[in-house]
Amino acid sequence: MDQKNQFLSAPTAARAFGFFVDGEWKDGAEHFERASPGHGTPVTRTVRCTVDDLNAAVAAARRAFEDRRWAGLSGAARGSVLLRVAEILRRRRDEIAYWEALENGKPISQARGEIDHCIACFEVGAGAARMLHGDSFNSLGDDLFGMVLREPIGVVGLITPWNFPFLILCERVPFILASGCTMVVKPSEVTAATTLLLAEVLAEAGLPAGVYNVITGSGRTIGQALSEHPDVDMLSFTGSTAVGRSCVHAAADSNFKKLGLELGGKNPIIVFADSDLEDAADGAAFGISFNTGQCCVSSSRLIVERSVAAEFERLLVEKMKKIRVGDPLDERTQVGAITTEAQNATILDYIAQGKAAGATLLTGGEAIDLGRGQYIAPTLFSGVSRDMAIARDEIFGPVLCSMHFDTVEEAIQLANDTVYGLAASVWTKNIDKALTVSRRVRAGRFWVNTIMAGGPEMPLGGFKQSGWGREAGMYGVEEYTQVKSVHVEIGKRSHWIA
Ligand code: NAD
Fold first, then answer.
1. What percent of the chain has pLDDT over 70?
2. Which of 100, 372, 398, 434 has its CA 20 to 30 A from that of 269?
3. What residues make up the catalytic site (predicted)?
4. Using a 6 Å CB cutoff, which residues line ligand 1?
């Protein structure tokens, strides 16, 4: 049986995972059972770790950092471990994608594509480990020479959400490792399996014990304790803006740990009348439906030029109606299940708010009953005004709101009318409009005539309340370093005391 077909039904019993500290698997007294959101049956069982478990993991990461078992290696040696990880991930791609689809509810074909992106992250991380360098100053006069060193920041805490459990992990781990740091990871309690599988992969690739540790458990106990921990030098948090804010308080009240924050978004997609409307409609349908809209960079605010708005919305409805919503393990599925019951209720509530506020529902707007699991039809509202909750809040579901504009200035103003600044996209064949809008809209990632394109060479992160710092690429590695200035006097000192 080929690997692809081996995993196409849900398991008959939950798979049990331990947690991973100092190169060893451990079990705990209490467990968390996760049911597949696409099937409603138990698929995994993970440990509810205690704060003592967390403290042991931070201590292991500290020892592994201080004795330089990882930071002391050459960039080439670190890079070769990361390249081996890429090879192992290639071998285990279908298996990891399977657990990702089961816990998260995303389509299996999409999950496989995500693992391919993760492989690329490790390859780029391997190159970055070799290329990481500082700077020098030959301009301080003949008797003084300056060097700027980039040193790993130390022990990193990494907290990840449930929407892209493996992808978000792999957009960070290779770059943290490339810098020479060690880490303690706390995945979302509902999607921890693939973070634990990565521990197996890293160990097989030759990563020393204690460099990558995983503690599973709730955000309120383990996440909070990690963000408050006095021996963690940096926290990379990806999740909601509300929890991001609590991490800022925790860092300030503990040890002023450095923070990397990747938070929410309410991302505009601006469509001009001169664009290829077919292409733009396909991009808009994809941008709101990918990962059931549970995507920090989902393009959830359609800002379309009034003269083509009716035609564009008609094209878009046609496309959205054709999207195949279904079982995550079905190869043909394009949109899978909503990941948690709470999120399902939140999305349906926003749809009800949109209707009550007087927005016009053009398609979707309801749950889809497949006999098991939780599914919502891709939804388009028109006639949305900027003060409606559906236009302002991050819904984190397949709900797109359409607003209309007449001038370039008005499009930019509407796009910037949000507390977020994560991503944006513009569709036009006019280079002046494309460049003007790209430069004036405040967002960390921008797409012109495309959406959600790119690779781990390019940095990602947000403006405004979408976060602090950048992940991936050389920018991502540098985030996990700190800069030290070294001054070297050359020759005989000119004495202060005569
Ligand atoms: P969340 O903020 O509820 O949880 C994220 C992580 O934080 C989880 O591991 C959770 O257990 C943990 N956590 C919860 N409470 C905590 C606390 N008090 N202290 C420390 N950690 C705590 O987010 P979610 O519901 O898992 O994910 C959805 C949100 O994540 C959305 O707002 C989305 O926009 C955002 N997100 C952002 C990006 C990005 O790159 N900007 C990517 C994915 C998701």
1. 99
2. 100
3. 262
4. 159-163, 168, 186, 188-189, 219-220, 223-224, 227, 238-240, 243, 246-247, 262-265, 296, 394, 396, 422, 462, 466-467
Same domain, 234 and 306: no
Q: Which residue range forms the structural domain that includes residue 55? A: 3-263+466-484
Q: What is d(CA 240, CA 264) in angstroms, rounded to the nearest whole number? A: 6
As a whole number, the mean pLDDT across the chain is: 96
- pLDDT for residue 3: 47
Q: Are residues 338 and 248 in the same domain?
A: no
Query: Nearest 10 degrees: CA dihedral of 177, 181, 184, 187?
Result: -40
* Total count of domains within the chain: 2
CATH number of the domain at 303, please. 3.40.309.10
Closest ligand 1 atom, residue 422 Cα: 41
262 is catalytic: yes
Ligand 1, atom 6: nearest CA belongs to which residue? 161
Q: Kindly indicate the confidence band of residue 8, based on its pLDDT and cuts at 50, 70 and 90.
A: confident
* 70 in a structural domain: yes
Ligand 1 closest atom vs CA 244: 2
pTM recorded for the entire structure: 0.96
238 and 147 share one domain: yes
Name the token pair of 110.
């999409």
